[in-house]
Amino acid sequence: MQGTVKWVDDVMFVGESGSGHSVVMDGPLELGGRNHGLRPMEMLLLGTGGCALFDVVTMLKKARQDILNCRVELQAERADAVPAVFTAINLHFVVEGNGIKDSQVARAVSLSAEKYCSASITLATGGVAITHSHETVSV
């Protein structure tokens, strides 16, 4: 995996992934930014959620669950000192679908947390307290 981050001006940067996709990162107004993009730590948090949600959706599809909507709500805490690292993150999955089985959702969330999600497992091995929860809405 590779990527490049280029400085644009002030505290704005453009990152390009090895797959050719780009994203703008920018700082808040009070630090000279224009607030035109995500903060780098927000990207780290969203990337973790995306990695875990990818796992959960993939597993539920393989289990032939009829998913209509699925999201992960992220809550993170950061240290008050520099560096302001993540100290805790909760990933709360909300899965909605026709006849969705809560046991299948629980299993998918557990497997993502313990075996498949490279992002959350990387953060956990670095000392971040990662927790997972879920709710299942069967329609």
TrEMBL record:
InterPro entries the record matches: KH_dom-like_a/b, OsmC/Ohr_fam, OsmC/Ohrsf
Domain of life: Bacteria
Stored Pfam families: OsmC
Entry protein name: OsmC family protein
